[in-house]
Design goal:
Rossmann fold, six-stranded mixed sheet, 452 residues, alpha/beta, binds guanosine-5'-diphosphate, 47% helix, seven-stranded mixed sheet
């Protein structure tokens, strides 16, 4: 248990209807009693009951408030926790926080409340991380996945794998300790395939792309020559006038973006400036950004105008995105197709499943495009593991298991395999925090916000 008492604003700073100040630690209730004057006759704080009154500092009422005391161990941190609800004004919050610090509390570091919940054994590390995931969720799938993890989904998966591993390790230890009774070959014949199975199970839970889509959404970039219809397509997908649509080539000078949600997954759409060698500085800056965005996106929609014969400019873009995940959009299907377009297309040999013909203006074919975007995002919210940190560890553990199995199959000494198996067990423990170092906790909680 920590001996210090920490405090912080738990709501976002700035003006708001309410602000919540949270205090946790052995001095929490004492600090509240120094600053809070109840409005009614009751002066004792009943556990987990709201109480109305005023915060009074040096004899001066600062604000009216509602406050609640949650006594250890039935609280977020398992310590005594106090929450004070006041009006969400900067001055009010600053005065109260200062007074709380003057009464002996320390300013909480980012994620320190949740870190205490972990250190006091209320939640494991994967659950602590789920709190942050839930707060930052930008889509329903991400929020659902975070909640599942918070309720112990990842913990159960890892505990299960650890249990299987421990039982396999017991078999290895028995073969090492009782060589007269247990034939090594026999033990290896049974244990090595199970180790490989467990290794595969861990690898199957690792979908880093899915984790990124869940965390940040699917990043889609619309590229193509000026006037191909990129802004029109973005607008049509966003169903609002975000980008400026004009018929003067090169008018979308900067990236314009927006996002939509499909089945609980966020899809970010970015319209880029036309990639062209421009002499104009503003447009050049736009072109530089467009190239950046094109490279880093998960999916590129290259828009081509079927009413025109593609030229070197189109081909330069085609080359720029070659080898990446692309969808080629043949736009302006409401207009007659230029004969040169069909000829050009024949030469390109683009696989049919990456091409779509539509009209951004009339909307024909847009639903099919939406369905493609939805399919490209997948269903990462249903994955067993959802955080890249967990996947890195699970992959390393899977490698260690495979090494051990291979060493067994190559008749290397069992002691050697045991080293790899111990390593795998420890790596899995880093996911749940069974096995943790201060450095690991610092790394995990550094991503949290203050007050959480
Ligand atoms: P961008 O430079 O690639 O962003 O192109 P815009 O979206 O600004 O469109 C250029 C011109 O093509 C505008 O006049 C649009 O109205 C027109 N346009 C875009 N999509 C279509 C389409 O599907 N059909 C027709 N007929 N015109 C379109």
């Amino acid at each position: 248990m920590n001996t210090s008492t920490i405090a912080a604003l738990a709501t976002p700073p700035g003006k708001g209807g309410l602000a919540v100040i949270r205090i946790s630690g052995p001095q929490a209730v004492h600090i509240l009693s120094k600053l809070f004057v109840p409005a009614g006759k009751k002066t004792a704080f009943a556990d987990r009951s709201m109480m109305y009154g005023h915060i009074v500092i040096n004899g001066q009422p600062v604000d009216e408030c509602m406050t609640v005391v949650m006594r250890a161990p039935s609280s977020y941190t398992r310590e005594d926790v106090v929450e004070i609800q006041v009006h969400g004004g900067e001055q009010v919050v600053t005065s109260i926080l200062h007074a709380v610090f003057n009464c002996g509390a320390e300013a909480a570091k980012p994620g320190e409340f949740t870190r205490r919940a972990f250190e006091n054994g209320r939640i494991d590390l994967s659950q602590a991380e789920a709190v942050m995931q839930l707060i930052s969720a930008t889509g329903q799938q991400a929020a659902d996945a975070a909640l599942r993890q918070l309720q112990g989904g990842t913990l159960r998966f890892v505990k299960d794998a650890q249990k299987q591993l421990i039982s396999l390790m017991a078999g290895v230890t028995a073969a090492i300790d009782y060589p007269e009774e247990i034939e090594e070959d026999e033990a290896v014949g049974v244990i090595a395939p199970d180790l490989l199975k467990l290794s595969d199970k861990l690898l199957a839970a690792c979908d880093e792309r899915g984790a990124a889509v869940l965390e940040e959404g699917l990043r889609v970039v619309i590229c193509g020559k000026p006037n191909a219809g990129k802004s029109s397509l973005l607008n049509a997908l966003l169903m609002e006038e975000r980008a400026i649509v004009t018929d003067i080539p090169g008018t979308t000078r900067d990236t314009v973006e927006g996002s939509i949600q499909m089945d609980g997954i966020r899809i970010h759409l970015k319209d880029t400036a036309g990639i062209r060698d421009s002499k104009e500085t503003v447009e050049q800056i736009g072109v530089g950004r467009a190239r950046e965005a094109i490279k880093s996106a998960d999916l590129r929609l290259m828009v081509l105008d079927i009413g025109q014969e593609p030229d070197l400019e189109d081909e330069a873009i085609l080359q720029l995105i070659a080898g990446m995940d692309n969808l080629y959009i043949f736009n302006k299907s409401d207009l007659p197709e230029h004969p040169g377009f069909a000829n050009w297309l024949l030469k390109q040999q683009l696989p049919e499943h990456v091409t779509m013909t539509l009209s951004a203006q009339s909307g024909i074919g847009l639903d099919a495009l939406r369905a493609r975007l939805r399919a490209a995002a997948g269903n990462p919210g249903q994955n067993t593991l959802t955080l890249v940190r967990h996947m890195k560890l699970a992959r390393k553990a899977a490698e260690a298991l495979r090494r051990a199995a291979q060493a067994m199959q190559n008749s290397l000494p069992l002691d050697l395999c045991a080293v790899d198996l111990n390593e795998a067990l420890a790596l899995l423990g880093e996911i749940t925090g069974d096995n943790f170092s201060e450095a690991l906790l610092d790394e995990v909680f550094a991503t949290f916000c203050v007050g959480k």
